[in-house]
Amino acid sequence: MSAQRQSRVTDPRSFGRVAVLMGGTSSEREVSLDSGRNCLEALQRRGVDAQAVDGIPALVQALVAKRFDRVFNILHGHHGGGEDGILQGLLDALQVPYTGSDVLGSALSMDKIRTKQVWLSLGMPTPRYVSLAKKSSDVEAAARSLGLPVIVKPACEGSSVGVSRVFSEADLPSAVALAERYEGDLLMEQMIVGEEYTVGILGAEALPTIRIVPAGEYYDYHAKYVAEDTQYICPGLSGAAENEMRALALKAFQAAGCGGWGRVDVMRDRGGANFLLEVNTAPGMTSHSLVPKAARAVGIEFDDLVWRVLETSLDRGGGA
Question: Is 289 annotated as catalytic?
């Protein structure tokens, strides 16, 4: 696979001084801190002049003081996370190169509803859904129109934050109350019964699929970041089915205006049909995270993966 290509640069000095941006103030702060520490250590092991920066205000101060030449963004989420386009717009204005997607890709993919609208406009498969404003009186009607079971979640959160699975109308009020703790509209989505997959994207290529098999019934926050018994099968498929899902994920990633690196989550129903769920433009890089697992399957170890992610910042000028 061509993802095994040689790195574009070999001299760590080519990157200059790198801010590894982590933490922040979103609901995914703790995951981001874990990801950030891992990425920082990987870059330092490779000789990169990298330092940790916690949150956007601290980064602004450091950039004004000319302390850094580029940013490795490993913030997760929005509202102080770095995945909603605000950070990207700031760095574009300051002409500071950064990793990952630009303003458009970051802002669009953070909003699950509008991402689905783009995919549907292009004839790409995604579960049927209803967008609900907070305090909506149409919750029961929306559930009936989709048909139970459904998923209820905030439209602009990640890491399974605020997500509920609803099997009866009696469970709707508690699911809605949980999702309404977070800002923005709610997304009610048809529940696809089948297997859960994720596809990492590195540059213009899709990495091998990963089939996620949680020990419990669902792949929730605990299964993602705490449990040690979740199984990750990579590649998750074979032959034509594997190639089809990888091609779909890459197409979905690019359709959402994303670039650099990321991850696309997909459900595959019992009939073998694929359904796009969402895009992550700054995926986790923890010990439980999935992009490193997929990269390792094609011979890219963690330190090399982090280096290649940093190389995506070269596409925005600066450096080698």
Answer: yes
Alpha-carbon distances, residue 40 vs 193, 234, 259, 303 (angstroms): 38, 26, 22, 10
26, 27, 28, 35: the catalytic one is 28
Q: What does the mean pLDDT of the chain come to?
A: 90
Whole-number pLDDT of residue 1: 42
Read off the CATH number of the domain in which 251 is found.
Answer: 3.30.470.20
Of 109, 289, 311, 313, the catalytic one is 289
Residue 211, in any domain of the structure = yes
SS (HEC) of 214-268:
CCCCCCCHHHHHCCCCCEEECCCCCHHHHHHHHHHHHHHHHHCCCCCEEEEEEEE
Q: What is the pLDDT of residues 209-249, one digit of tens each?
A: 999 998 766 655 555 556 567 899 999 999 999 999 999 99
Residues with pLDDT less than 50, the chain: 1, 318-320
Residue with tokens 């760590």: 12
Active site residue 159: yes
Domain range enclosing 19: 2-99
* Number of structural domains the chain divides into: 3
Task: Quote the CA–CA distance of 252 and 267 in Å, as a whole number.
Answer: 14
309 belongs to a structural domain: no
Q: Strands 205-213 and 231-233: what pairing?
A: antiparallel
Asked if 76 contacts 26 with a C-beta cutoff of 8 angstroms, the reply is yes
Catalytic status, residue 41: no
In the structure encoding, which two tokens stand for residue 53, read together? 């920066």
Query: Which residues lie closer than 8 Å to 43 by C-beta, 6 or more apart?
Result: 12, 18, 20, 50, 72, 306, 307, 310
Q: Mark the binding-site residues for Mg(2+), compressed into ranges.
A: 265, 278, 280
pTM above 0.85? yes
Residue 231 and residue 121 share a domain: yes
Residue ranges at the known binding site: 265, 278, 280
- In the 8-state DSSP scheme, what is residue 282? S
**Among the options 26, 101, 159, 313, which is catalytic?**
159
